[in-house]
Amino acid sequence: MIHILDKIPLEKRNMVDEVTVDMAGSMNLIAKKCFPKTEIVTDRFHVQKLASEAVQEERIRLRWESIELENNAIQKARKEGAIYKAELLDNGDTQKQLLARSRYLLFKSKSKWTVRQIERAEILFKLYPTIEKAYDLAQGLSYIFENNTHKDTARLKLAHWYNKVEKSQFKSFNTISRSIQIHYIPILNYFNNRSTNASAESFNAKIKEFRAQFRGVRDVKFFLYRLTKLFA
């Protein structure tokens, strides 16, 4: 990639003001080498994805615990010659089902929950307060990106968020907090123009899907020609 971009005159590459990348160090180095005068912006969605994954990690941990408890209860019932019957919650789920079926609602803000998801979330947060705590931390981070337009204000809000993370004692979120602190300059650069690489990610997904239809590509030039005709 660097060799291809090197063919573009330096004067033109110096005209690039901003490049949006993920949190990978290699991408930052490539962007800086190819566009020496550019400002690096860390894509907000990659930062938010880390927080969402931390919430799911807590949900999955508790789900494994629930499965293990159910297995022990089934074994105990068999030894006693009884039939195991899982306890049903108010919405008709077992605890194991509740943790499995709550996956998607934890990715969304409360305002986007369906009536069914609201009911499930109330039961989930009552039984597993650590999931609610993790969810609130993830949503708090999203709120900073969605509702702040000034870099200084965002910096202050992130500082408050760090304090909440420290008090929560979540190992995963402490790791995310450290990652944000390490990359805080390109992360805060997002608030200059609110730039993301969402369109590039979307286009990349279309290319992958198009390539998958043909189970690979042999003639690269013809493949690029077809992409140009379809998407240019």
Write up this protein:
There is one protein chain. This protein has 232 residues and is mainly α. The protein has two domains: 79 residues, no CATH class; 141 residues, no CATH class. Helix content is 69%, strand content 3%. It contains 13 helices and two strands. The protein has a two-stranded parallel sheet with strand order 1-2. The protein is globular. The chain starts with a helix and ends with a helix.
Number of alpha- plus pi-helical segments: 13
Radius of gyration: 23 Å
Strand content: under 5%
List segments where confidence is low: pLDDT < 50 over at least 5 consecutive residues.
none
Quick one: overall form?
globular
- Give the overall pLDDT as a whole number: 87
The helical percent reads 55-70%
Distance between the termini: 21 Å
The profile of the biggest β sheet is: 2 strands, parallel
Number of domains: 2
The helix/strand class is: mainly alpha
Order of helices and strands: HHEHEHHHHHHHHHH
Strand order of the largest sheet: 1-2
The strand count comes to 2
The quaternary structure here is single chain
Index terms:
globular, 13 helices, 2 strands, 232 residues, mainly alpha
Which helices and strands occur, and which strands form pairs?
Blueprint: H1 2-6, H2 10-13, E1 18-21, H3 25-34, E2 39-42, H4 44-79, H5 95-101, H6 115-127, H7 129-147, H8 151-168, H9 171-182, H10 184-188, H11 190-193, H12 198-213, H13 220-231
Parallel strand pairs: 1-2
Helix pairs in contact: 4-5, 4-7, 4-9, 6-7, 7-8
